[in-house]
Amino acid sequence: MRIYFDHNATTPLDPAVLDVVTRVLRDEFGNPSSVHHFGQRAKAVLDDARSAVAALLSGEPSEVVFTSGGTEADNFALRGVAEALEPTGRKHIIATTIEHEAVLVTLKALARRGWTTTLLPVDASGIVSPDALREAITAETGLVSVMHANNEIGTIQPIEALAEIAHAHGAVVHTDAVQSAGKIPVNVRTLGVDLVSISAHKFYGPKGAGALWIKRGTRVAPILTGGKHERTRRAGTENVAGIAGLGAAAQLAARKFAPEGTRLAALRDRIDTAVLAAIPGTAINGARERRVPNTTNIGFEGIEAESLLIALDLEGIAVSTGSACSSGTLEPSHVLRAMGLPSHRTQNSIRISLGAGNTDAEVETLLAKLPAVVGKLRTVTGMRR
Ligand SMILES: Cc1ncc(COP(=O)(O)O)c(C=O)c1O
Q1: Looking at 325, 331, 356, 371, which residue is catalytic?
Q2: What separation in Å is there between the alpha carbon of 369 and the centre of ligand 1?
Q3: Based on the number of CB atoms within 10 Å of its own CB, is 384 exposed (0-12), middle (13-18) or buried (19 or more)?
């Protein structure tokens, strides 16, 4: 029996979502751009999914543009706004040091094309302060992009306050809600943002399907050009089955996240409390009271995170060292580094991210095995820091 505690990397398909995806793959093969019956049926699938995504975010269906996932949505937001703003002379973008690579690497590409970028720092608990934005923002700032919840430590950023400051300076506001959508409420109106990225595979939908919510009136140039799909905002025949899965997952999430959140937070808090009590030299990374309910990130003195990951995998338990994109390398986490943690902490921390299938018994199995696994690794390393 293997235990999966890596839901921030990806989630399994919900069985109801799988049913929808397979039905659409089988029965709705039409091209949604076709005028005939087959096309219109496929278009109806897209319409339903668009409404479901809009409902999850409290936006309008016409404001939802389907993408191939979170990475494309982030690229679309940053590159699309940058291009649309070019004639205005506002060539400064502000983000944070703890963004996902989909944002950080895209910003580097924009910097090579003459954009200036500022990365706001976070405090030791992994939270960005509105004052930092107040200091960094100028009349040149065209876009402020701050993630809603962090993928490694789960911290939730004060998006409402940041958006207010950005708008007071005339900047467009994007939030990467890939790790919050489906876990906690993401209400685009109360957040006060202009653009929101989401990705289906983080909330029991299929990989390769996501969306960028674009507030009506926000100027965003397309990054994929061609046909008139998605009202000329994103060319290319839509991934109808994937989008149907996104819609089904969005519907389920809207119904389930409140009770699931409470359940997962209790399991997560049980892990935190038990690990801190049973294993000396451990610490929780990130603000414990401002995190998505399923995520914890724990440092273990005297071990390498990768070794712990492998040792737990041999015990049948899957965790992560942080962002999936950098696993397999011994790179310290850029998020933990940005929090100012000493270098040993940036290399000895693992992320445990819970999800729908996880049970009390699985958590107890982890807690039963962890002290011995950590103890053994510490013997091997001589408990070096
Ligand atoms: C915060 C964040 N943004 C963006 C992405 C990229 O999403 P996708 O895997 O759908 O491209 C991820 C995935 O790990 C993420 O955690």
Answers
A1: 325
A2: 30
A3: exposed
- Among protein residues, the one whose CA lies closest to atom 8 of ligand 1: 70
Specify whether the CB–CB gap between 109 and 82 falls below 8 A: no
Amino acid letter, 361: A
Residue 69 beta carbon below 6 angstroms from any ligand 1 atom:
yes
Q: Which residue type, as a one-letter code, is found at position 128?
A: V
Cα separation, 43 vs 30, in Å, equals 8
CA neighbor of 33 nearest in space, from 43, 48, 20: 43
The CA 179 to ligand 1 mean position distance, Å, reads 7
The response to whether residue 178 sits with its C-beta less than 6 Å from ligand 1 reads yes
Query: Residue 153 Cα, ligand 1 centroid: separation in angstroms?
Result: 14
The tens place of each residue's pLDDT in the chain, 385 residues long, gives 899 999 999 999 999 999 999 999 999 999 999 999 999 999 999 999 999 999 999 999 999 999 999 999 999 999 999 999 999 999 999 999 999 999 999 999 999 999 999 999 999 999 999 999 999 999 999 999 999 999 999 999 999 999 999 999 999 999 999 999 999 999 999 999 999 999 999 999 999 999 999 999 999 999 999 999 999 999 999 999 999 999 999 999 999 888 999 999 999 999 999 999 999 999 999 999 999 999 999 999 999 999 999 999 999 999 999 654 445 556 789 999 999 999 888 999 999 999 999 999 999 999 999 999 999 999 987 765 4
Atom of ligand 1 nearest to the CA of 210: 10
Q: How far apart are CA 47 and CA 36, in angstroms?
A: 16
The two counts, helices (H) then strands (E), for the chain are 13, 12
Nearest by Cα to 56 from 219, 199, 266: 199
Give the global pTM. 0.96
Task: For residue 72, give Cα distances in angstroms to 99, 199, 353.
Answer: 15, 9, 23
Question: Could you tell me the two tokens for 59?
Answer: 């936006």
Q: Judge contact between 188 and 53, C-beta under 8 A.
A: no
Tell which one of 178, 179, 243, 292 to mutate to probe ligand 1, the residue whose CB is within 8 A of the most ligand atoms: 178
Q: Is 325 a catalytic residue?
A: yes
Rounded CA-CA distance 260/15 in Å is 16
